[in-house]
Records
---
Amino acid sequence: MQSNPEIAAWTGGRPLRRIVFSEGCIARRVTEIGREIGAHYPREEDLLVIGLLKGSFIFLADLVRQIPRPLHVDFLGAASYGSGTESSGEVRLVYDAEAEIAGRHVLLVEDIIDSGNTVNRLAPILRARGARSLELCALLHKRLAPPLDLEPRWVGFDAPPEFLVGYGLDHSENFRSLPFIASI
Ligand code: IMP
Ligand code: MG
């Protein structure tokens, strides 16, 4: 894969194993999910979309542009990985949303569900703040986690049990800007 010069330009020559989801395939799926989300919520009720930093920033940006209704955007920052490819098990809240949660429909947007630790930690926090409804949309789901405190209503793709990078996902902060999703 590293012999492809176009891809090497993005990765600085760091090797990737294979492209798992192409740019076009992601775009088509994001449009589908956006329409479904738009149809799910009553038009006259407030929708707050909360992206989980940092991994969801590209997905969130593309997704909200495919949800044809008024909405607000905020962010939460959670960190569970050090520099390795396995979850440390401990989830730290490193940035909190400014938006009022009470009484609003809240849609949490995750890049990928792996162990489920992040969602299991954040869902109770958002519920305790009095969200009118709480739903989860994840671009990728590894389907490895035991039942979650909050199951995703929308999933972009089931992900293979590999470490994935690109389209916001990182390995030690590298590869976030790849326009596709690859395994390393
Ligand atoms: P969980 O808490 O184990 O479900 O993992 C959630 C977070 O870990 C995600 O939001 C990602 O930031 C990160 N993560 C899990 N699997 C991967 C992966 O394959 N590639 C990159 N980041 C991952
Ligand atoms: Mg990460």
Note: Helices lie at 5-11, 23-40, 57-64, 117-128.
---
Amino acid sequence: MRQLISNDIYYVGASDRKISLFENYIPLNYGVSYNSYLILDEKTCLLDTVDESKSTYFFKKVAETLNDRELDYLVVLHMEPDHCALINELLLRYPNTKVISNSQVFKMIKQFFNLDIKNQIVVKEGDTIKLGKHELKFIAAPMVHWPEVMFCYDTYSKTLFSADAFGSFGALSGNLFYDEVKDDNYFNEARRYYTNIVGKYGANVCNVYNKIKDLDIKMIMPLHSYLWRKDFNLLIDKYLKWATYTPEDKEVVIIYASMYGNTEEVACRLADILANKGLKNIKVYDCSKVDETVLIAEIFRVSHIVLASPTYNLAIYPKMHSLLQGLINLGVKNRTFALIENGTWAANSNKLISEELSKLKNTTIISNKVSIKSSYNVCDEQSLENLASSLVEDMKKEA
Ligand code: FEO
């Protein structure tokens, strides 16, 4: 069966509900789609392939959609294996296909597949390829999130093929466009996808946005998740916030590590005090229970983050330390942190966490820090109250 999107552009991608870990470390609760598009014009042109796990279904869809026509072109926008894995197999099945991409892609094809493409067309920024009515214009999108990435704009259908940008986790269930579904969880998963995969490269996202912002775009077709044909502002507004590390919500997230429940109690008491002071939508997370990719997405979302950690082997509790390394690696900035430590004989995690946070740009640490000895005691009440007051005051300051 052919799956027509619009203007002779067909969907030949596939959804994967079996995969449990994306890139073998990011948990997927709702699967993922690998999008691939086939344009049937005077020339036929496939844009990217799919993950190897979906090979059988993909090649059936390509053959059904081509309906005995030759495949003239394969455009490669991104060389990560969830999209490029079937290039070799495709060229065995369609040996006359010309591959269109940039020089870095051809180098990577050699690296991945030990394959020298004979029928290749090397393009660069601004080059165009005419398929008939459709004309593809190439836009370099380096480090969004790999160096070889390109976008491609079809001047006929006014479609932006955006590689991994504007994608998300989540399998597709027949409906291809975001406006055809009620998916309340979409932006949580889109944020988790962006922040953990593309999050480090905000400046590069801003650069490519400046190249596309004046294009007349009627559709956006990413390599993962829904396609877009309306309400682009919903998506673009989020992307610009994420890319500039601007908090979406002036809210507090409390992330604690706790071996025996004592630090957890302090974190929960702080949440209660903040609620009494009128703060809404406070979130409390156990960093040993909630996946780090969720915590990173939450830290991108909010303005204020409380980290509560025991001292462990005179260092930071391992799960908390891992989260901090994640934030540093992604270049998170523009946030306010508050700290709580717990230690039975040598509490040291506030100092060590402060040192880690000092590696993040434009980050403030609330000066009132709380230090607990083994467990919460009534004498800790005042320092917790002071921390809560400072947080509330700081949030007003930014209003
Ligand atoms: Fe969906 Fe960067 O691969």
Note: Residues 12 and 58 are 6 Å apart (CA to CA).
---
Amino acid sequence: MKNLKLNKIILFLSITILFAISELRAAEKSGPNVIVILTDDQGYGDVGFNGCTDIPTPNIDRIANNGVKFTNGYVTYAVCGPSRAGLITGRYQDRFGFGRNPLLAPNDPGEGLPLSEETMATVLNKSGYKSMALGKWHLGAHRSQWPLNRGFDEFFGFLSGGHQYFPELWTLQNLSEIKGQWDGYKTKLMHNNGRVEEQEYLTDALSREAVSFVEKQAGGSPFFMYLAYNAPHAPMQATEKYLKRFNHIKDEKRRTYAAMVSAVDDGVGLLLNKLEELKIDDNTIVFFLSDNGGPEDHNASDNGPLREGKSSLYEGGIHVPFAMQWPGHVPAGMVYNHPVISLDIMATAVALANAGTKNPLDGVNLIPYLKGEKQGIPHKELFWRKYDQDWHAVRSKDYKMLRRGESDTEWYNLSKDISEKNELAKAEMKDPEEMLMAHDNWLSEMKDPVFWGLMQGGEYNKKHPSRFSIPSPLRIDSTPPQIPAGYELLWAEEFDQPGKPDEKYWSYENGFVRNNELQWYQPDNAMVKNGKLVIEGKREEVRNPNYNKKSENWRENRKYAEYTSASINTKEKFTFQYGIMEVRARVDTSMGSWPAIWTLGAERRWPEKGEVDVMEYYRHDGIPKILANAAWGNEKNYRPVWDSARVPLSSFLQKDPAWPEKFHVWKMVWNENVIQLYLDEVLLNEIDLEKATYSDGFNPFRQPHYILLNLALGSNGGDPSNTQFPLKYEVDYVRIYQRKSN
Ligand code: CA
């Protein structure tokens, strides 16, 4: 007995110590605030710290003077979209198929940052950071891609690749009013997921909101701010306040450009002043860079000594003004000459915040190099690819290789020839074969583009004639009916476009799929009619093309299927994590019918991936029942573990004999701790999610899930041979709400 008591005391002490340690770890976790100031299409030579003389940038220069000027600072691409995708994920964007500038396509969840990727905001949020994105987004216009759905807590700006600067030119309410790619420049600005009435010049409005966010956050949790000015990207528009500073510049375009840069510089000044005033400047890392080189002819920018400009893989396209400060931690007035890249920003922030990433990063934590704790160079090689042009570049130490296709290569020594004027013979290069091999290795890890780009707009429009017609106002930022308090609509499938289910969201299962069911799944049996998805179960014979009499697999040893039906799902097209899913549907309760509304986890195999059956109707012990379940993996025997609720259909029929003829609302309420399943507001099952955590820490219900709607026949549904066909399973809508962030 005594021993037992002692054991208990020891256990108690150990737990107390464990708690103390974990609290200590939590405190250690809090890294510095991170601010990334990104300008758009600004030339390498257009900042004071790189020698600009006609446009003073005293505030941007403050960053370099307070900290480091990077003389070989790069971005990952020569135009806006892919460069931003690299910066915000810390990974070469070609790893996830972002090799093109995305089209503005608010109906298309695939036209933007793939959901497999975590943004810097998502990752820093794990360490308690609050994040705000400001200005140009350009990483996807579909609602699932909006900043608040990609890890940010707040957003002020616009979704398109550019924008008009004057409020009187913001003539469109939102994306539902756009008729073409460039109409995105004319919408009202967004604050979070809604639209605001803004009166200020765009650059000034962004600066004001940035300062206000810092004020709000100071003293609270650490913050990450992504301040993506669209200046000095075209259209060339500036107010008199800034224009009059540049009367000495005769060229009108250069004068406007200078004014636009000057407005950014004022904003940077306000922000730095605020950090100092709040005494948080030594706890805040500030990065400044441009998203690509200047398009000199287009906006009158100046890339200094660098060859070519925006969209080129010569230095002028990818080598940008780049500086950072972290007073008290990184020496002031430093000049750092080794190549660094925008990917390093996330790697640095994540390392300082002790945050873990799902995907490996390509960047390097720069702080040990800047403090002199680490010698050598951060990157052995840097790589660039322009997929559609089959144009590539590699930088290795002083040397650069440009490559078009397999054989056409150019070589330069940038330490002697930053302007890439004197092409070297391969024999004059140091380790050219090593560079070629490194490039081939890198390429083998890259993915082809996963969406059409700006250059394929015509082709895209042919394939997507309804690109700019928003089929359901619910999918865009208008107010849907009956949103639960504290929530907002993330996604809605209203099934209001007659024809096939919208292929942007829905895919089909085909043939014999699972559970020895009798039906042959085929797309023909799913149609949208009268505002509803109708899945029909039919008695019709389909020859099994995989028939093999000798096979032991039931999918192969049946010569025919006697029934057909359909099963649709949003796999790889739409997923969500947490929130409320609401589905209004009518089920066929005939013998043999097994309809379902369910979700599956995006990662791992079944059952480890996790399954939620929001609704199933089938026969259990011969009795027709409505079921509400979750299933996950059992690590001991690889079989599913079930948490099921089964309610006999008779209990619904007692209350309402017409129950089967009516539509009902099934609902899943999901947060990281619990899933609750409701039918017509009655709670049927509540699943504690902690019990599904595996020994490696993975929990199948703490990951995104996709949606499935299907009508199976036979198997658990019972024998349909005496049932009158067709059977009809109808779904009126699927709506997903998520909690509003404050
Ligand atoms: Ca740009």
Note: The longest helix spans residues 2-29.
---
Amino acid sequence: MDELEKIRAEAMELVAQASSLDALEAARVATLGKKGTVSALMASLGKMSPDERKTAGASLNAVKDEVANAIATAKAALDAKALDERLVRERVDVTLPVRPETQGRIHPISQVMDEMIAIFAQMGFEVAEGPDIEDDFHNFTALNIPADHPARQMHDTFYFGEKDDGSRHLLRTHTSPVQIRTMVANKPPIRIIAPGRTYRCDSDMTHTPMFHQIEGLVIDKATHMGHLKGTLMEFVTTFFEVDEVPVRFRPSFFPFTEPSAEVDIGCSRDGGELKIGKGSGWLEIGGSGMVHPNVLIACGLDPEEYQGFAFGMGVERMAMLKYGIPDLRTFFDSDLRWLKHYGFVPLDVPTLSGGLTR
Ligand code: PHE
């Protein structure tokens, strides 16, 4: 039995010393393997008498189990250790970008429209939409521009072919038809902005046949011109991220507003550099006014009960002023180098809380 105890102790020591899975496997072969020390003792049982074999066999089996258990425990521990090491070695930093650099860019027009929407949404405006292909009623007639009105000539309209009844569809010349669609479909109070494409048959340094506008419309029972100016003042200071941007109304004429005003913002041109904000200069950014009673009537609203304001601004112009883009036509050149330079990173979505510009 001393012999058994010695072999047991040696076997256990061998297992305890094994510091790797390979060493542990070697320990298993050396003890429980075919030619192992414990197995060799097993073979010696054959030479014993039945009585001896009974007691010796039981103790030997106990040793065998003990060694097998020790090996299993050691193996589990070594497996866990190997896995831990592997996890550390193969660690993936999921916060790293998949590709070193995002290639695509958001076009300044999309970015500026998103910025405008973020600002007006904060003021409680909803986004409304209308079709690019309009009819005469929504683009002109309902906006108090009757068939023989000279304003129709001013708009350089793209017309589609004549239909059987003599009418023609057209590409909308401004976003104002969305005013009509909104008032026809919804009861006041109304507070919407409508960003989108507009078209005029005009092309030179400062005009492209397709451009973008953002329309604003507020209709309720008490909204007046002071609210219009306050809304625009709030908008321009937030948009240009300047503490104070003077806003000036210049008397003007639009058939669909009365009174009408052109909107100018303050700027300085010191040293040839254009800066939005306090200064001696003025820049026009859009048209505005109180919605004309005839427009309300055309939409089925009673001008004795309802009133409100509307404004329209050019998106490209706002983008040029804010981001110092000098040439309007480059917006539509699809030049990747231009887009790389003036474009925005896709995930930098403009928000008032996170910052409009980055
Ligand atoms: N629709 C006008 C334009 O395109 C702008 C405007 C909109 C003026 C709303 C007054 C009110 O020039």
Note: The pocket of phenylalanine is lined by residues 174, 176, 215, 254, 257, 287-289, 310-312 (CB under 6 Å).
